Amino acid sequence: MNGDFVPEKEAKVSIYDSSLMFGDMVFEMTRSFNKKQFKLRDHLERLYSSLKYVHIPLKMTIDEMEKACLETIEKNELSFTDTDEHRLMINVSRGPLSIYSEIFDGKLEPLVIISDFPLKWTVSGMGKLFDSGINAVIPSQRAIPSYLLDAKIKNRSRIHYMMANIEVSQLPGDNNWPLLLDPDGFVAEGTGDNFFLVKNNVLYTPEPRNILRGISRQYIFDLAKELGITYVEKNLELYDVVIADEAFMTGTPFCLLPVTKINGMQIGKGKRGDITNSLLSKWSDNVGLNIEDQIKEFNHEMENYGTNGSTPYRFKDDS
Fold first, then answer.
1. What pTM value is reported for the model?
2. Is residue 279 over pLDDT 90?
3. Which end of the chain is more exposed for a tag (fewer CB within 10 A), N or C?
């Protein structure tokens, strides 16, 4: 936290911080493969683009931020098992609001928090989705259009994501994930993941307008080029998803998960498709491990720990 290493239970944020008052915080979350950070620099470049857009005056350079990230990983390595992967969470807020400056002796500065925890915490329960696939559900909550709040800024003002998650979590079944439409009725994104579909061996994804331009989304384009797969960014309607041959979601922790249903209707053959398989296999080859097997093994470990709580897509019912 701003240069000091502290145990997570002692990591405190002021009640007067702008992040609490306004959700005024930008962030990035990364993962490693075989303990080596994947696309860390890309994540940091997006972070600094977000910082510039929202006018957070961070003096820390991107090189200093990268060094701090690697130092945080090194500091935590002894707490990880040999098979654990490092999941970094980098949060930057504007810091305390100026009206409370007297409390802080007039010292007002951005707050930088870099935390490191095992990737398996994030992907708990996702392993089965490589086989069953996700049922993408269109919630009533719409994506916020870029003319109101640019989705390309990765920020903590995400109540619209949470409302979509809550709505979809109330439906029967375990594999329901939200897929938001934008105000024009076009497919936008999930609540922390990007969407792709395949039709006639061509890969389609929503144009980068009312969505966060995911690092994993961009890497799919790189993989498609390696494999000779044509990809197109365009406006997609719900109709296009219904008649697709296959579909999938991308996100940093799980990389790629198949979408086999839309609002309960089967997509294509109702199973992971050939192009999805090719992309996942190529991704695994490039990073030197089987992504699907690793996440399934993480899930097995978490089951042994007796972990069965809430997830971003399912909320524990204590009633």
1. 0.94
2. yes
3. C
